Amino acid sequence: AAADLAAWLEEKGTTVDLAATARGLAGHNHGRSRGIVVARDAEAATAGMTRLADGKKGAGISVADSPDREGPVWVYSGFGSQHRKMGKELYTLSPLFAARIREIDEVVRFEAGWSLTDLILDDARTFDLESAQVGITAIQIALTDLLHAAGLRPAAVVGQSMGEIAAAYAAGGLTMADALRVACHRARLMGEGEHLLPEDKLGAMAVVELGVDQLEEFKVEHPEFAAVEPAVYAAPGMTTVGGPDKPVSDLVEYLDGEGKFARKMNVKGAGHTSMLDPILGELQAEICDIVPRPLHTPVYSTVDRGVVYRPGDVVHDADYFLRCTRQAVWFSDATGALFDEGHRTFVEISPNPVALMPMMNTAFAHDAGESSLMYLLKRKEPSGDTLLATLAELYARGGDADLAALEDPGAYADVPGVHWNLQHFWTEARPTGGAGAAGLPGARVALPDGRTAFSCPVGEVPSIAAAAEAAAEAVIPGAQVAAVETYAGLPGAGDAGDDGGAGGVTTLVTRSLGGLSVHVHVVAADGTSTLVGEAFAPTLPAGGAATSAGPAGAVAAAAPAATTDHATGHSAGHTAGNALPTVDEGGARWDPASGQSVADRLRDIVSESMGYDADDLPGELPLIDLGLDSLMGMRIKNRVEYDFDLPPLNVQELRDGSVDDVIASVERMVAEKDGAAAAAPDKAASPAEPAAAAASGKDGETGEADETEHHGVGVAPRDASERMVFGTWSGLTGAAPAGVTSPLPTIDEATATAIAERLSERSGADITAAQVLAAETLEPLSDAVREVFETEVEGNIRVLRARPEGSTRPSVFMFHPAGGSSVVYEPLTRRLPADVPVYGVERLESSLDERAAAYAADVKKLAAGRPVVLGGWSFGGALAFEVAAVLENDPEVTVGHLELLDLVKPAHPAPDTVEETHARWDRYAAFAKKTYGIDLPVPHDLIDAQGEEALIGLMTGFLANTDASSHGLAAGVLEHQRASFVDTRILDTLDFARWADVTAPVTLYKSQGMHEGAIELEPAFAEIAEDGGWSGIIDDLEIVQLPGDHLGVPDEPAIGIVGAHIVEHLDSLS
User: Fold this and answer.
1) Left (φ > 0), alpha (ψ -120 to 50) or beta: where does 3 sit?
2) Superfamily (CATH) of domain 73-196+281-403
3) Taking Cα atoms as reference points, which of 829, 790, 899, 758 lies closest to residue 1052?
4) Around 987, how many Cα atoms within 13 Å sit in the side-chain half-sphere?
5) Nearest Cα residue to 175 out of 107, 89, 229
6) Helix axis angle, 176-196 relative to 163-170, nearest 10°?
7) Residue 793 confidence (pLDDT) above 90
8) Which of 484-493, 619-628, 682-691, 776-785 is least confident?
9) In angstroms, what is the C-alpha Rg of the chain?
10) Which residues contact 92 (CB under 8 A, 6 or more apart)?
């Protein structure tokens, strides 16, 4: 429908009558899905409708596939939303709003003796304490009636402080006259009290970073602040307090000195505290005869904690508003209950939004970060624009908005009718190794072994020669194909399908001493590939001398031709005698003659990447249920492609597949690559019977745990003991628990016995079936195993290889990557001599300085009086450098060498601007949505108001408190993302110059570039500085060029090159 309308608008051009078009569309049946475009002219309408048709969102476009399950909540905020011109623009724009304000003004004149309309329309006058409170309530009532006139109704209402008055009107609890009566006299008495008090007796209020219980405990511990009282519980950990000016000011100063957020508000009173006690008697007298009415809409009370008043209840008498004036406001509890019940659409009804920030904090705390928090009016934004934008969003989310009422009566355009979208229900989708790209040579991927792969649809390839020429040109600009050999023709684009026709063309480019070797493959729809042509593009000048094929050749072939010095593995100041050590790159690949099966090799790869023992990997569970995150997935993908010499794998298949699925897929690909017939692969060696038995209850019934039930945030396995217990339970029951601390389902005694025997055999501990049956979570079983089994990780240190008896070699310390574990350095450990002790340094949750101090103590303890080599991948390299700086002048230990694995800066760093900050967070939110299906709404107002640090706190809190299982994820996935995000932000803000005084020699191992995921999050990383960003910081920097991209650095073949260099450095220190 959107495409039809976009084409119709394009055809009409500037002659289209948008008002008539809107009237014509207002009566259309929208069905379950809705989309709406807000536009002022034909060009904007056409552009917006085109984006809507393309499935894109943007400014002025609202779309939803289904209505909100629980409906919208209208939020009536309290004092603070006033401003000098509030209500004036909408008064002149909307006749209905203006008429309602005039009716309200008659009541205000009678009750208060002054004119609200005159105050709204006179720019020379401003609002004081009394008139602002009345004005806010009046505007809230008028906005409520405006929404009603547009056909909209709330599913529930909630008020905040004085917002309870308009909320009562919106819910049917008070008439307009009685609501204004309460507002006028409440505001008058508070204003009179403020004017009568001398300056030194006035009250004050402040927002402080203390929750309900924290504030009570704090006051008990600090009786000097007894006069400070809670006023508004705005959000978890955020409370507004009030009292006499001096104690409130002293509290703000004290908390600020403790590093907590505390800000004094620009008010001269202390609402909702005992300072209002003197006015309560007269307020009771003025409003005692208001008539409460039965509610027609639920009210989530902020006066009576935890109470929801339902339709039919009679609530809003004088006593209710006396409590509303004097008692603390339970706004956090009320909005939290709404989030818990599933409400996800909230509209603040006020002259200017003031409640969105505390609601956002509450949303994150209640696992409702995907909620939409909207406002009707905002200061300095056109009222018509904000009102229409919110109406459009409410309509898209299922609101019964009368769109025809937004336009004056008039003609109806002959808009396109209903377009029937005929569906073909048999999918033609096929797995693919990556997204296509428009034009030749196609989507580009740098493989770990140094080759470059391109993939595109067969219909975009005119000939084999054209594919080869485009690929060669893309790898080395100016390269020209000198020879082409064709083995078969290209199939037609229409041949793709179930019959094994072509699904695409994959072109592989390999560098050699003389040029580029190009292989063109046709990939069928079922994943099989056929070599259809080869080509060669020379890069040496005609008649040029050949380069020596010495040991450096292996790395030089994988390096860009433009970086001659670095390509041979030297820094610019090194001589040719410093050639790279010889590396047996093929030694790490899988060899069919080795006797190791594909299945065993794959289990080794998966277990090494994920931190499991190979024996603890359940074959039938999806890898993502075992904690697979994006980094692990890419490492497994790269290792499998390299070890088995396979074309690019589909990372999504790894994410969703089980170990058995991956084994079967790789066995098939290996067999096809070797020319074997399509023989059935061996089944993975994991017993099906125990899994089937455990999945059944005592009488063959399924386990009692409800698959859709979530038990809060799952804790991922954190050490070897927990991984062993987690893997054993998952493998023998056929279902992974939500986390280590999550409740376990009921199992039968036979399954418990099998688990106990398996754990006892694997760990050496004496585990009984009774212990297994008694365990409510995996923690007690993990504790029992840990007592006997766990010696691998001690404090911050993972012992990758203990110091052999009699060894005098320097120790190697490798620091964890961002958000990850030092287990990634196991391939490096295998490349180092057996007499070299290797320690992995694990993650601490603290600042960079605090981590470095703790790590330095560990290094000194394990150095045994010998020199040490420090290193790390990316963020791990930064940790290594920081520890080296701490140890620089320490006489007990000498840092012999620093090994930096791809710790680099962009050639053109992103600017440090507010605009770039907003863009970076939008990219991160899009990544979380695309990768994990998690909505991370970016509160741009928070960035503007409090800076990026405040948002980092919110986002990390959200990730730490999100129930991973509700998104179909294991807990370890979100924990990795949270920790990785924190570490990466530390790295992004580091200035390498802080380490300029470190004297240890440094080697930088530089990949061919960042992986696509990193570039997606930070486009500046598309181009890395030639020297990695170290120019002017390290005078004698050795740079070693590695094959493959950033993600391939800790694995073969790149890690073999790293290991060979570290061996040289160790030999020079021994």
Assistant:
1) alpha
2) Malonyl-Coenzyme A Acyl Carrier Protein, domain 2 (3.40.366.10)
3) 829
4) 25
5) 107
6) 180
7) no
8) 682-691
9) 34
10) 98
Q: Are 252 and 264 in contact (CB under 8 A)?
A: yes
Q: Where is pLDDT greater, at 889 or 880? A: 880
pLDDT in tens, 197-256: 777 778 899 988 888 888 889 989 999 999 999 999 998 888 999 999 999 999 999 988
Can you tell me which residue has the tokens 């042509």? 533
Token duo for residue 380: 């300095």
Residue carrying the six token digits 């290797």: 838
Q: Give the confidence band of 500 by pLDDT, cuts at 50, 70, 90.
A: very low
Copy the structure tokens of residue 400: 């019964």
Pick the CATH number of 203-267 from 3.40.50.2000, 3.40.980.10, 3.30.70.250, 3.60.40.10: 3.30.70.250
Closest CA to 344 of 67, 68, 63, 74: 68
Nearest to 1003 by CA among 983, 984, 1028: 1028
pLDDT in tens, 324-337: 999 999 999 999 99
Do 73-196+281-403 and 720-790 show the same overall fold? no
Query: Which alpha helices (H) appear in 242-310, and where do they start and end?
Result: 245-257, 277-287
Question: Among all chains, which residue has been given the structure tokens 């590093």?
Answer: 259
* Cα separation, 425 vs 445, whole angstroms: 33
Token pair of 991 as six digits = 């200035």
The residues facing 243 across adjacent strands are: 204
Nearest residue to 433 via CA among 453, 412, 410, 411: 453
DSSP string, 854-906: HHHHHHHHHHTTS-EEEEEETHHHHHHHHHHHHTTT-TT--EEEEEEES---B
- The three-point CA angle 684-689-692 to 5° equals 105
- Spatial distance between the Cα atoms of 396 and 56, rounded to a whole number of angstroms: 15
Instruction: Please tell me the distance from the alpha carbon of residue 507 to that of residue 520, in angstroms, as a whole number.
Output: 5
Task: Tell me if the bond preceding 236 is cis, omega within 30° of 0.
Answer: no
Q: What is the DSSP letter of 649?
A: P
Single-letter code of the amino acid located at 898: L
The full 3-state SS of 570-612, as one line of letters, equals: CCCCCCHHHCCCCCCHHHHCCCHHHCCCHHHHHHHHHHHHHCC
Cα separation, 222 vs 700, in Å, equals 61
In the structure encoding, which two tokens stand for residue 630, read together? 């994006």
| Cα torsion 602, 605, 609, 613: sign | positive
Can you give the length of the chain in residues? 1070
Average pLDDT over residues 538-550: 45
| Separation between Cα atoms, residue 519 and residue 508, nearest integer Å | 5
Structural contact between residues 958 and 982, judged by C-beta atoms closer than 8 angstroms: no
DSSP 576: G
CATH superfamily of 598-674: ACP-like (1.10.1200.10)
Asked if 838 and 846 count as a contact pair (C-beta separation under 8 A), the reply is no
Helix axes 176-196, 277-287, angle to 10 degrees: 150
- pLDDT, position 544: 39
Sign of CA dihedral 728, 730, 733, 739: positive
Of the candidates 702, 715, 699, 781, the residue with the CA atom closest to the CA atom of residue 745: 702
